[in-house]
Amino acid sequence: MELLIKVDLARIRRNVAAVRAATGGRVLLMVKADAYGHGMKRVARALESDADMLGVAVLEEGRALRESGVTAPVLVAAADASEYAEAADLGLTVAVCDESGLDALAAMRRPPAFHLKFDTGMHRLGFPAEDAAKVCARAARLGLAPEGCYSHFGAPSKSQLARFGRVAAASRRTFPRALLHIASSGTLDFPGALYDMVRVGHAAYAGAMRVESRVIASRRAKAGDTVGYGLMPLARDTCIAVVLGGYADGVRRARTAAVIGGVRYPSLGSVCMDMFAVDTGDRCVRPGETAVLLGEELTARELADMQGTVDYDILTGFGGRAKRIYTDDQR
Questions:
Q1: Helices 40-47/59-67 angle, 10° precision
Q2: How many H-runs (helices) and E-runs (strands) does the chain carry?
Q3: Computed from CA positions of residues 177, 178, 184, 185, in that sequence, does the dihedral angle turn out positive or negative?
Q4: Which residues are catalytic?
Q5: How many Å apart are CA 74 and CA 31, to the nearest integer?
Q6: What does the pLDDT look like over 153-183, one tens digit per residue?
Q7: What are the tens digits of pLDDT across the range 72-126?
Q8: Any binding-site annotation on 273?
């Protein structure tokens, strides 16, 4: 017995096509963090002809894509200057975020393709947005031409968008062919945010993952009986179902739930390393019944709300001993 993570590649493909149709521009599909828990290599191989570019966080992810046979353009968001030579060898595109990165590129005989990253308000990575004209001019003097210029929204923000507008103007004056991009899944409909390309995670993976397990035990318990570590006492007589899968598999230790026979049941006590209990009330379910831990019946957003986190935290968490199964009804 094991947890099953079911990934619908065709659903991701349809989502990407919908984004392209809605925005009318290029689409960069983020596949970092193991494609947000969906499996980076499989997703990238299946979708590389449907997206214009793929996005990863670190060079190791880009290298893994190339080793798995992916040939599509790949943007590496946090590549160190010491990794530029390998990026060039692998045909990866790097994000350049500071002056030292420009200097490193200028010193190379064969630099990698690159995008200039500008900070418009998140204060993570990027050149200050107000320095865009100077940065573009310096890159040109060094004989460097970026393939793109971009920034990242912290939230839908008119002030961030205005700053990027000035970045875009500076880029277009100096590098008219560079791709401009700032919009991501949460800002696809934000007025004025669409430039030449959009980067998508949420919008691409919506509804594409399902996690199923099994009931491995079922029993009746009385008020006052205790459940799990910490010996939580029951307030009433009830039935308890024990579901395979614990925090070693990505089931968060905080409050969770499972859907069994179409009914959602709340967890009882803390989630254990390998299993957790749910309160099934008057119904004692049968061992062997399917327990849905994530799906249309119990979404990542709903689980995140239960646990005081975000849905990306939920999606990227499932793994451990779980087995991924892929379906693709279009190919």
A1: 60
A2: 11, 19
A3: positive
A4: 32, 229
A5: 10
A6: 998 999 999 999 999 999 999 999 999 999 9
A7: 999 999 999 999 999 999 999 999 999 999 999 999 999 999 999 999 999 999 9
A8: yes
Q: What length does the chain have?
A: 331
**How far is residue 298's CA from residue 262's CA, in Å, rounded to a whole number?**
10
Cα–Cα distance measured from residue 212 to residue 137, given in angstroms and rounded to the nearest whole number: 54
Give the Cα separation of 219 and 240 in Å (integer).
Answer: 5
- The rounded radius of gyration (Å) of the Cα atoms in the chain is 24
Q: What are phi and psi of 118, to 5 degrees?
A: -120, 140
Alpha-carbon separation of residue 254 from 12, 189, 307, 310, 321 (angstroms)? 29, 34, 6, 13, 20
205 contacts 15 by C-beta, under 8 angstroms: yes
User: Cα dist. 85→112, 178, 192 in Å?
Assistant: 7, 22, 36
pLDDT tens digit string along 293-315?
A: 999 999 999 999 999 999 999 99
CB neighbours of 107 closer than 8 A, spacing ≥ 6? Answer: none
- 331 marked among binding-site residues: no
Q: How far apart are CA 30 and CA 208, in angstroms?
A: 14
What is the Cα 297 distance to its own chain's centre? Answer: 21
